Amino acid sequence: MATPAPSALVELLKPITWFAPMWAFTCGVVSSGASPTGQWPVIAAGVILAGPLVCATSQAVNDWYDRHVDAINEPHRPIPSGRMPGRWGLYVAAGWTGLSLLVAAALGPWILGAALFGLVLAWIYSAPPLRLKRNGWWGNSAVALCYEGLPWFTGAAVMAAAVPDGRVLLMALLYSIGAHGIMTLNDFKSVEGDTRTGIRSLPVQLGTLGAARLACLVMALPQVAVILALFAWQRPWHGALIGALLVGQFVLMRRLLAEPRERAAWYNGTGTTLYVLGMLVAAFALRPLAVGGL
């Protein structure tokens, strides 16, 4: 049996996608308020689990079950191009799932539970019979939760060795909701193949302009809620900084809405950067609250 080249394996696992959950896990660690002293090995392992393991698994699973769609949208990808031959894509997805669970189990029950939940979502997002991605409302919600809320919760729970403070959970939830908009913009590149194969992504359902407007609204409203919460919790400087980042996003959103399909990828590289910077600001704002400050 032919075997894939290492470069095809790396491409299948998509390192560029690992940043979001690794960043969210780091935000969880920061927001916990706990000192990292003596915890660096666990923190490093958690970051690796969030990105190169669990997130990479989700990419392999998605590419295997999307191989027919990718043959239309992106035929250069490893599976439709033949650089990942036979059933190797499925073998990698299954193997990375097992490896992720082994590493998570070694790190303790909180990480194992979160990893198991994330991996289940990864499989039901792409694989039949559920295949949540067939509808953009459900699919994008699952991905947003796995990319932002779940790793944030995990990072905070590991550091606290308990369920995180309710305000930490609220921030993780709000940024997960906002990430639904990021996932919608990510679907713009697949409109043709999604239409032909019956995948009802939001750009397919609403049109590119309607989906772009929805994505902007879904990204903005949770950030407004974050700002209001931080002012209520007497963290005005942090709230004002996130407000400034949101104003920058509004400026970029105007350009996005002028040509949504052409500029969706551009906005994911510019406006989304401001969004995730706000996540870290919120995490630092939570530190004294999580340890009983103020």
UniProtKB/TrEMBL annotation:
CDD domains: PT_UbiA_chlorophyll. GO terms for molecular function: chlorophyll synthetase activity. Keywords: Cell membrane, Chlorophyll biosynthesis, Membrane, Transferase, Transmembrane, Transmembrane helix. It is a multi-pass membrane protein. The keyword Repressor does not apply. The chain crosses the membrane at residues 111-130, 142-162, 168-185, 206-231, 237-253, 265-286. Pfam families: UbiA. Signal peptide: none annotated. Its EC number is 2.5.1.62. It comes from the Bacteria. InterPro entries: Chl_synth, Prenyltransferase_related, UbiA_prenyltransferase, UbiA_sf. The keyword Glycosyltransferase does not apply. It is found in: Membrane. PANTHER family: CHLOROPHYLL SYNTHASE (PTHR42723), CHLOROPHYLL SYNTHASE, CHLOROPLASTIC (PTHR42723:SF1). This is Chlorophyll synthase. It comes from Methylobacterium goesingense.
